[in-house]
Design a protein that fits this description.
alpha/beta; 30 helices; 6-stranded parallel beta sheet; 745 residues; globular
């Protein structure tokens, strides 16, 4: 019983002769495969989940072949487009339980073989849709139950976390939040309100299959409430407002409608803190959403109350450009805005990576394994570097620029020979287009004053490899951030092999490769492990953790450092303080918050801006000093000797020994003080500050003009007065004290 017995009698076009009698056997085989696959899917859920899309594609192809044969009759066989497009369209319609048998060749309708295959394929398509629909509604029902449970809760102590849209970043962070807070309420958005079809159309079906299945499963795994996304937060057609006040009011209205539409306003009433995450790949959309949410949360009524209960925190994924960080500075008591920059988070985690090391065979401490101090030779008696630190950054995008700033600050050392110095090279094929804007923001990092070399060359070019051959023996630290995992790891391996061939000592040499795609992370780490000296950093699964995004993991250390820095100043000169005994009664957190809140203590807007910038600068220095403490202690011989050296300095304090005499008696302390000033200078240049221009003065006799970013202390050590030198020395003393405290705890 062949389906195509009479085909050759009616087909005149040669290309249609492919439909000979043998195609029925292909259809039967496909039908049997579908039966097998569906059987396996029913028996093994993992098989279904793993091969869901493959099964759908197989059914789609089968339906296409069935309809291709069925439509090949009575004139249709002469239309190439009809035979190409109509079978595809009807194969798709099969998933919505629709068919077009009335248009099928009567010969096929009378064929038991054809109808058997057609029935199998059609049932398979309907079953596929049914399985997906059940799968879909299971998550929707679970989500509804979670929402009702959250509303029924009297008070949510674990917090509310709202993700607008979902991707690798949001899933990773939501998973970590759930692991740390099992009772937290997590909300993720799903569809656009424009897709509000209530029926099971082909379009909605394909949208579900291609876009939402993974979303639902990922959200289900973290126990999230799934809400329809609304375009209220990302409407692109809003740039025509002439009246700024009207635009702000419109922003507020849209944000309010969005929160009400998703029921988030009711959930906010149940908790004291709500976190919003704007992690779209479109940074402009993130900023737009941030502005709308901010407009809603900063508006208060005549009593000073906001429409929404509790503290609101907004985390916005954008680069850390000056214009974006200004939004962060506008945080207030009931609203905290935080700019999330993956480049800064990646480099920060790299600098914070630690490993427990033994001390004297018994004690242990955390060794910051990627700090530049680990890549040079040192004289611990004098706290001096005896070999030069040299670093290269390949790729001058966000990660490359951030890496250069970190390395420039942490790569400053006091050397045993004045002729020695640290070296820094930045390479990018687009350097000519990138460096001028970079130096406009950070004028102190120009070539002449900083010693940084900026080279415009492609890393595949002959010039680059000539540069690499000339510098490979002195380079200690290479950061590869070229924006592509495959190119990055290949370049790292090539550099490693060049270093080996050159006879370089590989003991103090590291190549750090930024990962951009989580799908590659395990393979990259495996390659790095086999090669050696290559470290992978910056993956989403490492960066998007609660401790990095929500919690300022350096804040407790920074608070402790600031508290003890001030305490050391009091201990050395208590007469300079009004109530030194009161300070000791406060906690590090209290002291930090008191200074932090001074940033808005002014009615003058320009002065308020200056206060904000000053406090931000001081807080950044406390954070860095908490990390740089490790460098100072390593140069001094490690934490094991910290107590002894701290006691020496304290004895000099108690005896009220003049500062210059302390420097002369303890050269290591003098060198560490000079090192701190080198670091401080580098840090301020990286922040955009420059030395006070010749002939200029700062009003009020202050040392810094925050608005113009002038600072009169960005000079050499010898140009500082003894009082300013002592500020650097107090940092060194505080580092010894904290290392001693940690050793004794």
């Amino acid at each position: 019983m062949l389906l195509l017995d009479d085909l050759n009698d009616v087909v005149e076009k040669p290309w249609l002769r492919i439909f000979d009698a043998n195609i029925i056997w292909v259809q039967i085989v496909i039908g049997l495969v579908i039966i097998f696959v569906l059987t396996m899917a029913i028996k093994k859920r993992r098989f279904l989940s793993k091969n869901f899309m493959l099964i759908g594609i197989l059914i789609l192809i089968s339906g296409y072949l069935v309809y291709l044969r069925g439509f090949c009759w009575s004139g249709t066989e002469n239309s190439f487009f009809a035979l190409t497009l109509r079978p595809l369209l009807m194969s798709v319609e099969m998933f919505a339980a629709q068919n077009d048998l009335q248009e099928v060749d009567p010969v096929c309708l009378d064929s038991a073989s054809y109808m058997t295959v057609f029935t199998i394929v059609h049932i398979a398509a309907i079953a596929f849709t049914g399985i997906f629909t059940l799968h879909f509604f299971k998550f929707k029902i679970q989500s509804w139950q979670r929402f009702r449970k959250a509303l029924a809760t009297k008070h949510n102590d674990a917090g509310l976390y709202v993700f607008f849209g979902i991707n690798e970043r949001t899933v990773t962070l939501a998973t970590d939040i759930r692991a740390n807070h099992k009772d937290a309420v997590i909300v993720v958005t799903e569809f656009d309100e424009d897709n509000d079809d209530t029926g099971l159309s082909v379009d909605s079906l394909l949208t579900h299959v291609t876009s939402n299945r993974d979303l639902l499963e990922q959200a289900g795994r973290v126990g999230a409430i799934i809400k329809r996304k609304t375009r209220i937060l990302d409407d692109p057609n809003e740039n025509n407002y002439v009246n700024y006040a009207k635009k702000v009011e419109e922003y507020k209205r849209k944000a309010n409608e969005a929160l009400t539409f998703m029921g988030i306003d009711r959930l906010m009433e149940k908790t004291d803190e709500t976190c919003f995450f704007l992690f779209s790949s479109d940074e402009n959309q993130n900023i737009e959403s941030l502005l709308k949410l901010r407009s809603s949360f900063t508006e208060t009524d005549e009593t000073g109350e906001n429409d929404y209960h509790g503290k609101k925190r907004i985390f916005c994924l954008v680069n850390s450009a000056q214009s974006n960080t200004m939004l962060e500075r506008e945080s207030m008591d009931n609203l905290d805005i935080k700019i999330i920059d993956t480049a800064s988070l990646s480099i920060g985690l790299l600098m914070n990576a630690s490993k427990t090391q033994p001390v004297n065979g018994q004690d242990t401490y955390n060794k910051y394994i990627h700090h530049p101090v680990n890549y040079i030779d040192i004289d611990t008696k004098q706290a001096l570097a005896t070999s030069e630190f040299a670093a290269m950054v390949v790729g001058f995008g966000e990660t490359g620029r951030t890496a250069l700033k970190w390395l420039y600050e942490f790569g400053q050392f006091k050397y045993d020979d004045e002729a020695k110095q640290s070296h820094f090279i930045a390479v990018d094929s687009e350097m000519d287009n990138l460096v001028e804007r970079f130096l406009t923001r950070c004028p102190g990092l120009d070539t002449e004053s900083s010693g940084i070399e900026y080279d415009a060359m492609d890393y595949n070019s002959r010039e680059f490899w000539q540069l690499m051959r000339e510098n490979i023996k002195r380079l200690n630290y290479i950061v590869v951030a070229v924006g592509d995992d495959e190119h990055g790891i290949t370049l790292a391996v090539d550099i490693y092999e060049l270093a080996q061939r050159s006879g370089k000592d590989m003991g103090k040499f590291g190549i750090f490769v930024r990962s951009y795609c989580d799908e590659n992370i395990e393979r990259l780490k495996e390659i790095a492990k086999k090669v050696g000296n290559i470290i992978i950093f910056g993956s989403t699964i490492d960066v998007f953790k609660e401790r990095c995004v929500l919690n300022d993991y350096l804040l407790p250390k920074a608070e402790t450092f600031y508290y003890n820095y001030e305490k050391q100043r009091i201990d050395y000169a208590p007469s300079e303080w009004d109530n030194p005994e009161e300070y000791a009664k406060k906690s590090p957190e209290q002291c930090w918050n008191e200074r932090h809140n001074k940033r808005v203590k002014s009615d003058d807007e320009m002065q308020k801006k200056a206060n904000i910038m000053k406090i931000a600068r001081q807080e950044s220095q406390d954070r860095v000093n908490a990390l740089h403490l490790y460098t100072k202690i390593e140069l001094s011989g490690g934490r094991g000797v910290a107590k002894e050296k701290y006691d020496e300095i304290q004895e000099a304090f108690i005896k009220k020994m003049p500062r210059e005499e302390i420097y002369a008696k303890y050269p290591y302390f003098h060198n560490l003080s000079m090192l701190e000033h080198l670091r401080w200078n580098a840090a301020h240049k990286a922040l955009g500050y420059i030395p006070l221009p010749e002939g200029e003065e700062i009003a009020g006799g202050k040392s810094c003009d925050e608005i113009r970013k002038w600072h009169k202390c960005i000079v050499t050590w010898d140009e500082l007065t003894i009082d300013y030198k002592w500020y650097d020395s107090i940092v060194a003393i505080t580092s010894f004290y904290l290392a001693k405290e940690e050793a004794e705890s």
